[in-house]
Design a protein that fits this description.
The protein has eight helices and 24 strands. By secondary structure, the chain is α+β, with helices and mostly antiparallel strands. The protein is globular and about 70 Å long. InterPro entries: YycH, YycH/YycI_2.
Length: 430
Amino acid sequence: MKERLKSLMLALLVVCSLVQSYFLIYRLPGNDPVVKTESDYIKTENMGQEAEAEDMLFPSQIAVHLGENRHTVFYPDSAFYNLIYSRLKGRQFDGFQRYAVENLNWTDIRGRYAGIELQFGDGMPVALLQKVMQIAPDPLFEGESISRVLIYNSENEDQVRVFFFSSQGDVVYEATKADLTVQDVRQQVDFGKDWVPYTLVNGYYIPEKPIHMVETGQNIGLFSTDQMQSSLFFDPSITRYIREKDGSEIYTDSKRSLQVKQNRNWINYTDPAAPAAGENNPGKNVLSAVDFVNQHGGWNGQYRLKQTEDTGSEQHTVVFQQYYGEGQFGAFPIIDMSSFHYGEITLEMRQGTITGYERSLIYSTEGFWNKKMVELPGGEELRNQIARLENEAEIVNLYPAYLPSLSEDGLLLKPMWTAEFKNGATRVLY
């Protein structure tokens, strides 16, 4: 009898020990296990803010066509830009038909008819555009990427025509069922009547008068290497440190590597062995990229989806560009320069999995050490600056932007006109 009681007590102690071990390992309640797999990352606190993908899906600018070859342009976060875009996001677009882009003279249409044009730069996947605009599902172009949307009143002004342009440049899709009236378009066009006049030249817009922006000097902080290691490595304590001849530092756990360029305050993280998680879908890749940044550094300001493209062998690149704005003037992109990397977050992906991550470690804090109004030239002065670049390559876009630089005081954002070439390169107009 005593032996049976001893055996029962021993079994009970073993069970209690197992239960206690389970609670210690998994920290119930909360189900936050101490044991993690190598695919888990530690979410870093006190860094950038989290953001929703929808907040980054907006046009780079909105052009307003007034008829008689008169135009104006509104930039993100300006009052009329927000008003036009918010109204269009509530409209329905359906009944798509596809045409070859050369079927119509689009320059003539922009010059003759009253309308508005949303420009999305390198292109926005339809699957993402459907998150911010009421676009009906349609197999005809659901796999497309849209560079711009043109809405205008027809010649006799009894019909509104709506066209979505493929970023490939060869086809255009007309939404034959759109709940927009002629009066809707007129009201939105009227917003631009008393604004700065622009002229359409070779596909881009030149203001005939100077435009105003705010030059600003921001106080800054710097994310530490330890913070980034904690965020990006499964176990930062086992990383090895390597110093390169160019002064950059590399931290690696033999699978992943984090290169830190201290002179530029820039990181380049690579995880080439990351297991593929799904298909190479542009829309899903962007959503995965946003989630990754949310968990590994966050966002230090307002960003816009700038680029999403296949780079071959199931590789995909996603680029987010930072914007900065001051009140009524709107928000403008910050140009990432080879001499000073700042303003873009770039992610390399393979079938939905992040394999590369580049970003600045600099973030802005409260307060400014410089702020003043500046005037960017328009008219002939601007045309003369453009003329000096025309021999380099074909210019496809012209826009105001911020040129960043670093000083002892902090980060300086200087307004400049920026020209974009057909090959994707950009040049700042001094």
